[in-house]
Design brief:
The complex is a heterodimer of chains A (139) and B (111).
Chain A lengths: L1 E6 L5 H14 L4 H22 L7 E8 L3 E8 L26 H9 L2 E7 L3 E9 L5
Antiparallel strand pairs in A: 1-2, 2-3, 3-5, 4-5
Helix pairs in contact in A: 1-2, 2-3
Chain B lengths: L1 E6 L4 E9 L4 H12 L5 E5 L3 E4 L1 H15 L5 E5 L3 H9 L7 E3 L2 H7 L1
Parallel strand pairs in B: 2-3, 2-4, 3-5, 5-6
Antiparallel strand pairs in B: 1-2
Classes of the chains: A alpha+beta (139), B alpha/beta (111).
Amino acid sequence: MKMITVPGRYKNLVELSEFIRQAAQEAGLDDFAIYSVETAVEEACTNIIEHAYGGEGNGDIQCKCQVSDEGLTIFLHDQGKPFDPKSIQEPDIHAPLKKRKSNGLGLYIMRQWMDDVKFEFDPQKGNTLTMFKGKEKKR
Amino acid sequence: METKVTSYKHCDLVKTEGRVDSATAPQFSETLQGITDQGRFKIVLDFGSLDFISSAGLRVLINTQKTCKRYNRGEVVLASVPANIYAALDLSGFTSLFQIFDEVTNAVGYF
C-alpha cells in the first residue's frame, strides 16, 4: 500500500492528485476513470479542509492507495471534526439557473463517479473516507 | 491555471489553461469578475487547454452565468470543451445552462 501525507492546504492537492493518478494508472483504470478518481479525491480533500478542519493549515491529510485486481481503493484520513454526509443536501441538477445552488456538488460528484464511498468517524483515530473505483466503466 | 483575456467588439474571450480547482478557482473568479465589473457580460470561455475542473470551478461558472444573464444583458458560453471536462459539466447538470460550441470562432461569432 502506498501512502502520502500533505498539509491541509488547497495548493497541496495538486501533489495528491499526481499521487492518485499514478496509483490509478497502476490499477489499470482507463483515462476517464483516472480523471474521475482525481476529481473525487480533490472534492473529498476540499471538504476535509473546509468542513473537518474549518480552513487551511489546520491539519494534515493522509492518503493511502491500494491497487487490486478489481481496481483502486483510496483511504483518506484526517483528524478534524467528524463530517455528517447526511447534512449535505443533494443538489437539484435540473433546476433553472436562477434557482440553481452551487453547493453540495462535490459530494454528489464523488458519489456518482466512484463505485463506493464510505465515511467512518472514530473519536480516537479521526475520520476515514474510503472510496473504491472498479475497472469496469461506470458512467 | 493560466488565463488570457482577449477583448473583441461584441464579447470577451477567456482562454483558460491547466487546472481550475480549489486552489485556483478564486483567481479564475477574479479574472471573470474583472470583465463583468467593466460592464461586459458576453463571455466566451475557451476550454481547449483546460485539464481539470472541480466543483470549486463549477461554482465560479454558475455564479458568473447568473451575473451575466441578469437583465438579459449577456451570457457565458463555452468552447472547445475536452471530453473529461464535458463529462463533469454533464454530470452536474450544466450542459443545459451553457451553450457549448465545438469551435472558438463559432462561439465568438454567436455574439
